[in-house]
Amino acid sequence: MRLPIRKYGDPILRVKGKRIEAVDEHIRLLAENMLETMHAANGVGLAAQQVGEALQLTVLDVSQVEDRPSTLKLNGEAVEIATAMPLVLLNPTLRVAEEKDSGSEGCLSFPDITAEIDRATTVELEGETLEGEKIRIEASGLLSRALQHEVDHLNGILFIDRMTSAAKASVASKLKRLQKETQKGME
Ligand code: ZN
To answer: Residues with Cβ within 5 Å of ion ligand 1?
Structure first.
């Protein structure tokens, strides 16, 4: 089932996700619905907050983006992106490399807004799968960027927080309009 995507201005986007201690039917169904919602929206990632649940749960799929490559190691072993996607990650923690690069970024909670954002070129993530197994991911390229974006969401951090002040100024009027629209819809 597709879920409505929460937009900027909805306070849930600022709530840090709660750790998931046990995978029950609710979590399994939520993950399934998040995957369907992300794919339907042509997104590369979606965090639980974006569908109204403040939990440490995110889904990703970068396999459809051919012009922005990624590399991935799963538990130390290099794997093909296509075979490893989609990813469903619980309780992730990130270690980011010092080296950064700038790249274009958008967010399903901010329709029609994109900006160049500096992110670490590579990351190491530790988390859990839906099956309750520990997973270690080393990623570069678009997947590195997407993992940083999604783990930020799980901590209540949004990509506008990572924009330079110049980039933020350039989208300020769009942001204000979106926030107003969202808040009007919630009344
Ligand atoms: Zn986002």
So the answer is: 107
On whether residue 137 sits in a domain, the answer given is yes
Structure tokens at 118: 């500096």
Structural domain includes residue 6: no
Domain with residue 119: its CATH number is 3.90.45.10
131 Cα–ligand 1 center, Å: 25
Q: Ligand 1 centre from 49 Cα, in Å?
A: 10
Query: Is residue 131 exposed (0-12), middle (13-18) or buried (19+ Cβ within 10 Å)?
Result: exposed
**Tally of domains in the chain:** 1
Q: Is residue 31 domain-resident?
A: yes
**Matching residue, tokens 């070129």:** 121
> pLDDT tens across 50-78, in order?
999 999 999 999 999 989 999 999 999 99
Tell me if 46 sits within 8 A of 57, measured CB to CB.
no
To the query of whether residue 150 is one of the catalytic residues in this protein, the response is yes
> Which letter does DSSP use for residue 44 in this model?
S
Parent domain of 89: 11-186
Provide the pLDDT for residue 31: 98
How remote is the CA of residue 44 from the centroid of ligand 1, in Å?
Answer: 9
Q: Ligand 1 center to residue 107 CA distance, Å? A: 4
